Amino acid sequence: MSNKSEKSDMEKGPSQTVVLTSSASIASRDENAKWGSTSAAHRRLESYHVNLIAMGGSIGTATFVYIGSGLTAGGPLGLLLGYGWWTAVIYTIAMAQMEIVTFWPTDTGFSRNASRYIDEAWGFGIGWNFWVNEIAVTAYEVTAFTIVLEYWAAATNVNPGVYIAVVLASYFVINIWDTRFFGHAEFGFSMSKILLSIGLLFFTFIAMVGGNPLGDKFGFRYWKDPGVFANPYPAHGKLTSQFEGFLAATTNAAFTIVGPEYLTMIAGETKNPRVVLPKAFHKTLYRLIVFFIGGALCVGVLVPYNSPELLGAIASGAKGAAKSPYVIAMNRLKIKSLPSLINACIAMSIYSAGNAYYYCSSRSLAQMARDGHAPKIFGKRNRHGVPYIAVLATAFFTLISFCQVASSAQIALTWLTSIVTANGLVSWITFSYTHIRWTKAMKVQGVPRSSLPVTSWLMPWGAYFSLGASIFVILLQGYTVFLKGNWSTDAFLYSYLSPMVIAAISLAWKVLKKTTWHRPADVDLVSYIDDPAFDVQPEDENQSAVHRWLNRIF
């Protein structure tokens, strides 16, 4: 089960302690199939696929464009603090997921774990929450992709519906094939996004020390004038307004900074998950620091929070990278060649992020079907282990991307952004609380943490921190509607409708199915966790030299 021990399987002894043994499977293949063992989902993703997806899989529109909204709301220091705080939250969640996913590396682990360690009704609700979230965020990225293309004037002569059709068709082709094809595609995309992010860090440093056509050594000028904090609501008083700006920047970060859920999603299709996944989860720290905290620092250095160009681009819904702080800085510094190149790179990043979300949507629907939480037909897989019916369903529901053809793309983006932010926060709450309940069950049943395949020094107390932080943000993300004269029904629904709907469907399932809230002493910590495919497998003799080399490097 781990590198620390040659033992691999779990069983309860008389003292209720779960010990590691080398016995055969304790559950039949039929029982394992019920929970989605490797008999259904084929483990085709290599170590290099998983590690690069961990580093760059979720980098998309928000990282390069939407982050500008956080800057205008919070100022450079408010943005940096908001992103820094939320990075700590997400990394803590990643460590919680690392422990619980390596314990039971099944696909769609978070909804299954919620069903197993909390209540099946909770797993039902979070499963549908995640599926809706992935459909919405796929549509968001597709919408953003078409807007990015309109940065080039020639592209505006083409109906955006054409771009949408091409993108969705390509997503379908990538995801209907063998999972390895998806892995290869995301490996290349992720590598490109990593290089783009690092390139922008270097650009920021070179530009701020005077390496630009104007020879302007601006350094941290904009931290002094107009200052480190924005003042979005001056009528509320300076300190209150600055704190509100920080909250807005944090909400921006909650939409932008994601990732651990995607490693959880691919756990069921990863080779040697108990060896590969811990390394991938740990690598999320580098991604969080370099790409998100580093990105927040860069945009705060490059552009003042009161930049007329940035504020105007956001207000007018400027096309593509025109509202990216990086492109605005390049235009100010008279750098003529880079903006178009950056726009092309951003388009590639957006396309890749949408592809990853498309994958997650199809897999989550397939697993809900096999858990009895969705029609069974969506759980069918072909001989390559691909849930082809679920992929077809995803292709159908992502057609909501065409909404922008009939209405303003900016309105569609606002709607989708709000749904994704709220649903994402519900997921973080679930991840954290599931870990707390799982840890409690282990303690009550006498299972030592030392028996786990891998542990983090942040756990178990880190889960309480991420739970509290997520609840805090989900409650306050739409607080401005409650201020005097600020009521907006649309804004209220954007912020709070999704959590209420999720709670309602979970409660309805609980009443309908008469599910029970699991007591720690009754939680099953034994079944379905001893599959030999979870541990180290011999290297495939037919594997090419290139694949072996990539696995060693990444």
UniProtKB/TrEMBL annotation:
<feature type="transmembrane region" description="Helical">
    <location>
        <begin position="52"/>
        <end position="71"/>
    </location>
</feature>
<feature type="transmembrane region" description="Helical">
    <location>
        <begin position="386"/>
        <end position="407"/>
    </location>
</feature>
<feature type="transmembrane region" description="Helical">
    <location>
        <begin position="340"/>
        <end position="360"/>
    </location>
</feature>
<dbReference type="Pfam" id="PF00324">
    <property type="entry name" value="AA_permease"/>
</dbReference>
<keyword id="KW-1133">Transmembrane helix</keyword>
<feature type="transmembrane region" description="Helical">
    <location>
        <begin position="413"/>
        <end position="436"/>
    </location>
</feature>
<dbReference type="GO" id="GO:0015171">
    <property type="term" value="F:amino acid transmembrane transporter activity"/>
</dbReference>
<keyword id="KW-0812">Transmembrane</keyword>
<feature type="transmembrane region" description="Helical">
    <location>
        <begin position="246"/>
        <end position="264"/>
    </location>
</feature>
<dbReference type="GO" id="GO:0016020">
    <property type="term" value="C:membrane"/>
</dbReference>
<feature type="transmembrane region" description="Helical">
    <location>
        <begin position="285"/>
        <end position="305"/>
    </location>
</feature>
<dbReference type="InterPro" id="IPR004841">
    <property type="entry name" value="AA-permease/SLC12A_dom"/>
</dbReference>
<feature type="transmembrane region" description="Helical">
    <location>
        <begin position="126"/>
        <end position="149"/>
    </location>
</feature>
<feature type="transmembrane region" description="Helical">
    <location>
        <begin position="194"/>
        <end position="214"/>
    </location>
</feature>
<feature type="transmembrane region" description="Helical">
    <location>
        <begin position="457"/>
        <end position="479"/>
    </location>
</feature>
<feature type="domain" description="Amino acid permease/ SLC12A">
    <location>
        <begin position="49"/>
        <end position="515"/>
    </location>
</feature>
<feature type="transmembrane region" description="Helical">
    <location>
        <begin position="83"/>
        <end position="105"/>
    </location>
</feature>
<dbReference type="InterPro" id="IPR050524">
    <property type="entry name" value="APC_YAT"/>
</dbReference>
<protein>
    <submittedName>
        <fullName>Amino acid permease/ SLC12A domain-containing protein</fullName>
    </submittedName>
</protein>
<keyword id="KW-0472">Membrane</keyword>
<feature type="transmembrane region" description="Helical">
    <location>
        <begin position="161"/>
        <end position="182"/>
    </location>
</feature>
<feature type="transmembrane region" description="Helical">
    <location>
        <begin position="491"/>
        <end position="509"/>
    </location>
</feature>
